[in-house]
Structure formats: structure tokens, C-alpha cells
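Researcher: First entry.
Model:
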Amino acid sequence: MSNQEIRDPIHNFIRLEPGEKQVLDSAPFQRLRHIHQLALTYLLYPCATHRRFEHSLGVMELAS
């Protein structure tokens, strides 16, 4: 199975190994799409829309 890539504005392309893809597709990880990284800051600063999902992808890339 070939690796997949996700486009990221900070890390350019994040390559996913098959095991990482399996974790990424799990329900607990997908839940992170709905949780803001900066809590309610986006209400004061409209462009502060970072989510835990994107943050976790970046952490995974740096840890790899």
C-alpha cells in the first residue's frame, strides 16, 4: 500500500504511513476536528481558527 500525503500550510506535505493513516481515521482522532486549539480565542480574533486536529497532524510530522 502506498503512503498518502496531506497538504499542510506549515509543513507543506505530511506523508502518512499505513499505521498513521489507521490512527488518523479513528473516531477519537476525527473528534479533534471539532475542538479549537485556542479555546474561545476565535471569538475575539476571527482568524484564530486552529483546531486540535491540525495541531496533532503537525505534532505527528515533527515527531516522525
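Researcher: Second entry.
Model:
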Amino acid sequence: MTLRIELVREGPSTTIRLIGRIRAEHLDELKAQIEGSRKPVVLDLEELNLVDAEVVRFLGTCLAEGIRLVNCSPYINNWIAQEHGRGSCDSEL
């Protein structure tokens, strides 16, 4: 499985659920989904099982811009922390 993106709109916010594997080539689609979503945006990474370095940098940028990351695996959270000096994925919604 590659990447599947599911949008869940709840009131004034949007949760974007990422499922499978995400690589740099998927980032344009994800950015478009984020830009077209109601704010605030939450990225749910519970079912994400593989990322590459470019995606980790992008997720760190998302955090810096106020997008919440939830349900990160420890390996993704630790990698973000190494790249950005802090891990900050919430454990759940």
C-alpha cells in the first residue's frame, strides 16, 4: 500500500488521516489537502507506517506552523525530534 488520505471535517476543523506509506512525491497532494481544509488542521498519523526524510522535515514544518500531529509512532516522533530539536506529537485526538 502506498498513501491514502482521508479527510474528516468536524465542526470548524479538519482532521487529515494519513494511511500507509508517504514519500516526498506525495507531499504536493498533502499540501493541497491542508491548504483546502478548514482550520485548524490536525494530521492523524496513527496508520502511517513509513516516511522518508523529506516527509519528516515537512511534518516538522507543519508543527512550527501550528498544525497538530496526533498518534505518531515513536520512531516518527523521535525522527522529528532529531531533525527539529523537539518531538511534539500528541498521543491522541
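Model: Note on the second entry: The CA atoms of residues 14 and 75 lie 25 Å apart.
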